[in-house]
Specification:
about 30% helix; 6 helices; single chain; three-stranded mixed beta sheet; five-stranded mixed β-barrel; alpha+beta; 10 strands
Length: about 220
C-alpha cells in the first residue's frame, strides 16, 4: 500500500488567477522555485529569538520570531535610542494583529520613554514636571556648571520650550511613547522605527480614542 502525501507550496505566481475579462486561464506549467513564497513570521513580543533563512542567491533573511526591543529615532530632536517594546496598540491593516500583539512594519506600538526622557533632560538642561500643567518642562539646577555650559543649556532649554509637543511630554510622564515600526521584523530580524509626533501623532491618538469609544 503506497501512501502519497502532497503538500501545497506557497506560490506568488498569477497563472491561477482569472483573466481581466473573467475568463478561466489554462495553466500549462507547474510551480517554479523562483515564484516560491514562505510562511509569515508573525513576530511576537518576548525574549529575542531569530532564525536565519537562506534565500535565492545565497542571501540571508533573518526571521524574528520574538523581539522585545529596538532602536527608535526621535526625528525633531535628532536622537536615536534603544527602547523596550511594551505593547501593540494599532494596526491599520488588521485588528487581529493588535489582539495577538504581532510586530509588523507600520504597526503602532508603545515603547519605554525612559531613555528618551533621560537624554532630553541631560541635553536640554531641563526637568519634566508631572505636577505643573502650565509649564510641563522646567529649568534644571545649573549651579555646578560653568558659565559657557550654562549659557549653552539655557539656549537649548528655550528652543525646547518653543518646539516640544505637549502630548509628547504627557507621554514621557506616563512612561510610554507611541512609535511606528519602519523595519520589517520578519525580513531583517529587527524592530526599529520612529517616535510619533506632530500631525501623525494626533491622527493615531484620534484613531485610538475612537476605538476606545466603540468598546
Amino acid at each position: 500500500l503506497l501512501v502519497y502525501s502532497f503538500t501545497m507550496g506557497i506560490t506568488r505566481d498569477s497563472r491561477h488567477k482569472r483573466r481581466l475579462t473573467g475568463g478561466r486561464r489554462n495553466v500549462h506549467q507547474k510551480k517554479r522555485k523562483y515564484e516560491m513564497g514562505r510562511q509569515p513570521a508573525m513576530t511576537k513580543m518576548g525574549a529575542k529569538r531569530i532564525s536565519a533563512v537562506r534565500g535565492r542567491g545565497g542571501n540571508m533573511k533573518f526571521r524574528a520570531l520574538r523581539l522585545d526591543s529596538g532602536s527608535f529615532s526621535w526625528g525633531t530632536q535628532n536622537c536615536t535610542r534603544k527602547a523596550r517594546v511594551l505593547d501593540v496598540v494599532y494596526n491599520s491593516s488588521n485588528n487581529e494583529l493588535v489582539r495577538t500583539k504581532t510586530l509588523v512594519k507600520n504597526a503602532i506600538i508603545q515603547v519605554d520613554a525612559t531613555p528618551f526622557r533621560q537624554w532630553f533632560e541631560q541635553y536640554h538642561g531641563a526637568v519634566m514636571s508631572k505636577k505643573n500643567k502650565a509649564s510641563p518642562v522646567e529649568k534644571a539646577d545649573l549651579s555646578g556648571k560653568s558659565s559657557s555650559v550654562a549659557s549653552k543649556l539655557a539656549g537649548r532649554f528655550a528652543d525646547a520650550q518653543k518646539h516640544l509637543d505637549a502630548r509628547l511630554v504627557d507621554q514621557m510622564n506616563s512612561g510610554r511613547l507611541y512609535a511606528c515600526i519602519s523595519s520589517r521584523p520578519g525580513q531583517s530580524g529587527r524592530c526599529d522605527g520612529y517616535i510619533l509626533e506632530g500631525e501623525e501623532l494626533g491622527f493615531y491618538v484620534r484613531k485610538l480614542q475612537k476605538k476606545k469609544g466603540k468598546k
